[in-house]
Design brief:
Layout: H1 34-37, E1 67-86, E2 90-94, E3 101-111, E4 116-123, E5 127-131, E6 144-159, E7 164-182, E8 197-217, E9 222-229, E10 232-241, E11 261-269, E12 272-280, E13 285-294, E14 301-305, E15 314-318, E16 324-334, E17 339-348, E18 366-376, E19 381-399, H2 407-416, E20 419-437
Antiparallel strand pairs: 1-2, 1-3, 1-20, 3-4, 4-6, 5-6, 6-7, 7-8, 8-9, 8-10, 9-12, 10-11, 11-14, 12-13, 13-16, 14-15, 16-17, 17-18, 18-19, 19-20
């Protein structure tokens, strides 16, 4: 197991990270290119601007001539705050619980012949990291969570007819994750000192997935594209530690020992689908749309397998997430032969209900406002830049959660107090990208 910290999938945005409150729903990342960022990622399954298009729809490779390379990064600055009341100690708050991140990417495409085009993408679309700090009196339910993934994605596209393109790809995903909870003060019965680790788990894994896509040109001005990315099942292999795991099956052992238990935790990166369209209204103006679906209902709970502690799975966190949708519309304006202007608006629905929201993943609805531009420096080199501001909807958060059967949450509330409050936040993103055609 590596000494990296990453993803809590229920532990649950970055090749990098961002709070789930900040960009796409859950711990999903939309930030795959600066080109797409400028239009709020509207029309991504139908737009073939450069080699980055293959990550959202492999069929788009067939629109790319010769050999092309595209590389860049997106800087994400989330601002997520939590304010509320601890039932035993009173008001408490924590600011900037989500970490800044730079999300890099690299894409390559090569036209094999008139019908076939191959490519490879090095990017990510899942990741996040939150840290609630040491002074917040809600850390008994979770003080940190992280998810990091990196994807190697070879793709192949086939031009079936002049109107229909089909593509497929293989996904090799490297993932790591961690989740922790900490005593914010002395337990009510004085059995656990302040600062004690209640639970901490980390692990990593490698797994395979796949993607499919198709694009259909209705005519030379209108196009639709559809893509599907499979779920990827990770078994994060690592260890667990903390007070919650330090009682041996026979009842012996110090409750505050630092014993590490080898084990694993299953984590599913959900399946996704996208339906997009491109409409060239005039020679200068184009409009793009997208509807995205993510199967977050596959993220229902986190359980740990710790064979040396128990033959039964140990509940880490009940999640009860639900499928979510993202709606986006964007425009492109060709100012002149060299300068392209972009803008877009998107609405991202939350993957959790108010009842199931947690402190470590303060997931809520988001609205995106994006602007961007591309400049053709030479016929072979294009530079892109984009800026996005994301408004996160203020949302209630309460732990332990009403109607959730979670003995560990109930025990944490009894020892250290319950929490009820609100999460607020916003995020801004800046992306740059260079694309070169050989």
């Amino acid at each position: 197991m590596k000494n990296n910290k990453i993803v809590y999938l229920a532990v649950a945005t970055a090749l990098g990270s961002l709070s789930t409150t900040a960009h796409s729903a859950g711990f999903q990342l939309a930030e795959t290119s600066a080109t797409g960022l400028g239009r709020a990622f509207a029309g991504e399954a139908a737009m073939a601007d450069n080699a980055s298009a293959q990550f959202r729809n492999p069929a788009l490779l067939s629109y790319l001539a010769d050999t092309q390379v595209s590389a860049g990064g997106i800087y994400v600055n989330p601002n997520v705050d939590i304010d509320g009341q601890n039932s035993l100690t009173g008001p408490t708050s924590t600011d900037d619980v989500a970490h800044d991140a730079v999300i890099p990417n690299f894409y390559f495409s090569h036209q094999l012949d008139d019908r076939l085009t191959a490519g490879i993408a090095l990017a990510t679309n899942f990741g996040m990291e939150t840290d609630l700090g040491n002074d917040f009196t809600g850390t008994q339910f979770g003080n940190e969570a992280a998810v990091t993934t990196f994807e190697i994605n070879p793709n192949l596209a086939w031009k079936a007819t002049d109107q229909l393109r089909i593509g497929a790809g293989i996904r090799y995903v490297l993932g790591e994750g961690s989740i922790g909870a900490q005593a914010n003060k002395m337990a009510a019965d004085n059995s656990i000192p302040a600062g004690s680790t209640l639970k901490y788990m980390e692990g990593d894994d490698r797994a395979w997935g796949w993607q499919l896509g198709a694009v259909y040109d209705i005519n030379d001005k209108h196009r639709v594209g559809i893509s599907y990315r499979s779920e990827v099942d990770l078994t994060l292999d690592g260890h667990a530690e903390g007070v919650n795991y330090n009682k041996q099956p026979n009842g012996s052992g110090s409750p505050l020992s630092d014993t590490h238990y080898s084990g694993s935790m299953d984590l599913t990166l959900p399946a996704t689908a996208e339906l997009s369209s491109l409409h060239q209204l005039t020679e200068q103006w184009a409009v793009h749309t997208s509807i995205n679906w993510t199967e977050w209902s596959s993220f229902d709970k986190l359980e740990a397998d710790l064979p040396s502690l128990s033959s039964d799975p140990q509940m880490v966190k009940v999640e009860n997430w639900e499928d979510n949708y993202r709606f986006a519309i964007g425009t492109t304006y060709q100012w002149d032969q060299q300068l392209t202007l972009r803008s877009g608006v998107a609405y991202d629905t939350s993957a959790v209900s108010d009842q199931n929201r947690t402190l470590t993943i303060p997931e809520t609805d988001r609205t995106w406002l994006s602007v961007g531009a591309g400049y053709e420096v030479t016929p072979k080199l294009t530079l892109d830049a984009a800026f996005t501001y994301v408004f996160a909807k203020d949302a209630p958060v309460k732990e332990p959660r009403d109607g959730i059967d979670s003995p560990s949450e109930d025990a944490a509330a009894k020892a250290f107090g319950s929490f009820e409050g609100e999460t607020t936040g916003n995020v801004w993103l800046v992306g740059v990208q260079a694309s070169y055609r050989f």
